[in-house]
């Protein structure tokens, strides 16, 4: 293996000996496949996690310019867009035919770019989630993605995220750069049964979206309780008090954290106190090396040292933020959170939080539907829990929409109460581990 100089300013791949478990098979960063990749700029579409990790290690050692994603997040139009931007688009993995390794024939499926341009050395490109339209490219480096630098207690981390996303890079850079940070990767086909995988391989730290955690609590609460978690992290979606409290019931001694992070501003907010939202006293507080948080016209605005290229200064996040008591709550996207009901503004996230606070609601999604006279009315989809929660009232049946409407009516103004509630049997989840994006 190459012993090229470090690209992170520390010893070369300090986590090279860390254990990496992919598809249930244990290896190390050092022993992942050596890849024979086309010259940069390069867009690698990894069909399985093993080669996504190998591509990340290849970049850490050799540098260059890399965009890493899964094929599911890159349609034909995006492939063409990448080629026009000068990238060679390369598919890697079991579903892509033969894979290029050292001494091999090269990466399968490589498509020559439409035009050549100078390489941006040591550049990593991330695709945004596309919640506000087509995914956009945001530039980073391994240094800007490596936000955990201090010495950490030894952990075995679960990584359920799609390769190439910001959250994936956060867990991967931790394991790459910190000794004692092992990694257990969840492939898409393992998502329903990840607690068994985690228990088998000694996972004691896990990061996931609220939807990821809700889905596991709904499908396999007993299996989840058997995982010896000491650190739980939530991010990627609004985090409400109900999901924090339910995880606390299962893991009373673990540290439970939520993180606000994005490709644009990096990891900007980290909260460990078990409460939804962040302290209002953090607003407009400037400190060296830390993001500055603000709320402008109901929108979260962040100036972050971890920002993507070209995004220095205040960044309007597009997320709604509300001051409630001594906390600032982030409820959802500005363009989808507000529902206009007869001239009255309703926060879809606020209604969702009321529904998920019901002890028999495992998950909820709230939207607006066109309605005569009012313009829109509030409607919801819910998934009900399958086992009673502590201090639960009488269990509603799947058809008992009226019970949930009454629950909302006791806590919301009349115009914000859902007029239709549809009961689903499973919590929907996308490749990003989100249900609303």
TrEMBL record:
It comes from the Bacteria. It holds the Pfam family AMP-binding. One of its GO terms (biological process) is fatty acid metabolic process. Gene3D superfamilies: 3.30.300.30, N-terminal domain of ligase-like. GO terms for molecular function: medium-chain fatty acid-CoA ligase activity. InterPro entries: AMP-bd_C, AMP-bd_C_sf, AMP-dep_synth/lig_dom, ANL_N_sf. This is Acyl-CoA synthetase. The lineage of its organism: Bacteria, Bacillati, Actinomycetota, Actinomycetes, Micromonosporales.
């Amino acid at each position: 293996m190459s012993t090229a100089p470090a690209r992170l300013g520390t010893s070369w791949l300090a986590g090279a000996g860390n254990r990496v478990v992919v598809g249930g098979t244990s290896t190390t960063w050092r022993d992942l496949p050596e890849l024979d990749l086309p010259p940069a700029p390069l867009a690698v579409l990894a069909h399985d996690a093993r080669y996504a990790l190998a591509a990340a290690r290849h970049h850490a050692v050799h540098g260059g310019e890399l965009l890493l994603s899964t094929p599911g997040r890159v349609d034909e139009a995006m492939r063409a867009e990448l080629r026009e931007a000068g990238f060679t688009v390369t598919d890697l993995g079991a579903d892509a035919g033969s894979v290029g390794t050292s001494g091999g024939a090269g990466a399968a499926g490589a498509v020559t770019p439409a035009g050549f341009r100078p390489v941006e050395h040591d550049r990593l490109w991330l695709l945004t989630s596309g919640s506000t339209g087509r995914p956009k490219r945001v530039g980073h480096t391994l240094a800007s993605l490596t936000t955990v630098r201090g010495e950490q207690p030894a952990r075995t981390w679960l990584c359920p995220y799609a390769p190439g996303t910001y959250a994936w890079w956060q867990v991967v850079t931790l394991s790459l750069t910190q000794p004692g940070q092992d990694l257990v990767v969840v492939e898409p086909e393992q998502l329903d049964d990840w607690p068994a995988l985690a228990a088998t391989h000694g996972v004691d730290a896990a990061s996931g979206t609220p939807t990821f955690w809700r889905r596991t609590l709904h499908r396999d609460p007993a299996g989840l309780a058997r995982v010896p978690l000491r650190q739980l992290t939530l991010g990627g979606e609004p985090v409400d008090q109900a999901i924090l409290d339910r995880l606390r019931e299962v893991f009373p001694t673990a540290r439970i954290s939520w993180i606000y992070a994005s490709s644009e501003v990096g990891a900007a907010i980290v909260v460990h106190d078990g409460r939804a939202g962040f302290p209002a006293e953090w607003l407009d507080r400037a400190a060296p090396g830390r993001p500055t948080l603000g709320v402008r016209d109901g929108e979260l605005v962040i100036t972050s040292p971890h920002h993507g290229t070209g995004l220095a200064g205040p960044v309007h996040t597009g997320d709604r933020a509300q001051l409630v008591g001594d906390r600032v709550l982030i409820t959802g996207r500005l363009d989808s959170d507000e529902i206009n009901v007869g001239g009255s503004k309703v926060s879809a996230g606020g209604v969702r939080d009321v529904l998920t606070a019901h002890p028999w609601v495992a998950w909820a999604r709230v939207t607006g539907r066109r309605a005569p006279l009012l313009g829109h009315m509030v409607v919801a989809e819910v998934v009900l829990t399958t086992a009673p929660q502590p201090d639960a009232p009488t269990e509603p049946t799947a058809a008992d929409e009226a019970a949930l409407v009454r629950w909302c009516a006791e806590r919301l103004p009349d115009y914000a109460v859902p007029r239709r509630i549809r009961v689903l049997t499973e919590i929907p989840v996308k490749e990003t581990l989100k249900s609303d994006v």
